[in-house]
Design a protein that fits this description.
There is one protein chain. This protein is α+β, with helices and mostly antiparallel strands. It has 2 domains: 241 residues, CorA soluble domain-like (Beta Polymerase, domain 2, 2-Layer Sandwich), CATH 3.30.460; 61 residues. The chain is 62% helix and 15% strand. The protein contains 9 helices and 7 strands, in the order E-E-H-E-H-H-E-E-E-E-H-H-H-H-H-H. It has a 7-stranded mixed sheet, sandwiched between helices. It is elongated. The two termini are 69 Å apart.
Length: 310
């Protein structure tokens, strides 16, 4: 699906689900800024991005938008900047890839699944053309919309954490840390990329866009800090739970050792008294029992002392 917004002479013209032929004609006649949003990019769309004179994007960038395993990154190409982000829209939604091709006169966004925050940004620009006086302003609005979606998710993850002195199961801690780690891997690249946009030399930003990007950066950084603190707190809880488990195992082993030490003399005496052998019957039974009892007591004492030292 191809959506197109054209901002020309302070007016916004919007085309929803436009055909590729109509798209080519419209862009060829346009003299204003435009934002093309591609959902579920096809081979024809990929060829259009590479061949159309207004774009000429690198094929590897288009390929990165379509591959699931691609990590977030940004890269500078002649005439445009490419950004690839992973975005979390809801608590149960899988992370979505969002590719952005940014140039002074156009913005192209590419994603495989519907993204509600992009529709919200397009609706805002359609109501007020001043929000897209430059393409970098549109990118700033998108970054702020991503922060709006992820703020509640991060807050929920942070609130579910528990103090490290509470009794918790190791499996619960592991699951919580896994979810926190997944979110950290989303937010930290967002923070780094947005910082490179407004603090680097990749773009010549409008003042308003720079302020909006800076605000989005601090929001992403606060999210990353909150997630990291929560993860560290859970790590302390995991170490405390592990220590308690080791203490319980140690106490159980000491009790078992003490029990064996007590029962060993009884077992030895019982075995000696139960032996029916002609050679042993000729020996002095009290002497045999005494020797066995003495050896058993020495072994028991040695076991008890070893357990106490451990």
């Amino acid at each position: 699906m191809r959506d197109l917004l054209i901002v020309e002479q302070n007016n916004v013209v919007r085309y929803d689900d436009v055909s590729l032929s109509h798209l080519q004609e419209t862009l060829a006649d346009s003299r204003g800024l435009f934002w093309m949003d591609l959902e579920q990019i096809t081979d024809e769309d990929a060829a259009f991005l590479s061949d159309f004179k207004e774009f000429g994007v690198h094929p590897l960038s288009v390929k990165a938008c379509r591959e699931v395993s691609t990590r977030p990154y940004s890269a500078v190409f002649p005439g445009h900047l490419f950004i690839l982000l992973h975005v979390q829209e809801g608590p149960d939604a899988p992370p979505a890839r969002l590719g952005c091709f940014l140039a002074p006169d156009y913005l192209v966004t590419v994603h495989a699944t519907p993204l509600g925050f992009l529709q919200e940004v397009k609706d805002r620009i359609q109501r007020d053309a001043q929000l897209m006086r430059s393409t970098d302003q549109a990118v700033a609005l998108i970054m702020q919309a991503i922060a709006d979606r992820q703020d509640p998710l991060v807050a929920e993850l942070a609130m579910e954490a528990i103090p490290p002195d509470h009794e918790v199961e190791a499996r619960w801690i592991y699951e919580r840390q896994r979810r926190l780690t997944d979110m950290i891997h989303l937010v930290k690249p967002q923070c780094d990329i947005v910082h490179s946009l407004y603090a680097g030399e990749k773009l010549s930003l409008q003042t308003e866009a720079a302020v909006q990007l800076q605000d989005a950066y601090y929001r992403f950084r606060n999210m990353a800090d909150a997630l990291t603190r929560t993860w560290e707190m859970l790590n302390d809880a995991a170490m405390a739970a592990q220590t308690k488990a080791l203490r319980r195992i140690d106490a159980s082993s000491r009790r078992l050792t003490f029990l064996v030490a007590l029962l060993l003399p009884v077992l030895v005496i019982a075995v000696l008294l139960g032996i029916d052998d002609p050679m042993l019957s000729n020996l002095a039974s009290p002497a045999v029992v005494g020797i066995g009892l003495a050896v058993s007591l020495l072994v028991a004492i040695a076991l008890v002392l070893t357990a106490r030292k451990q």
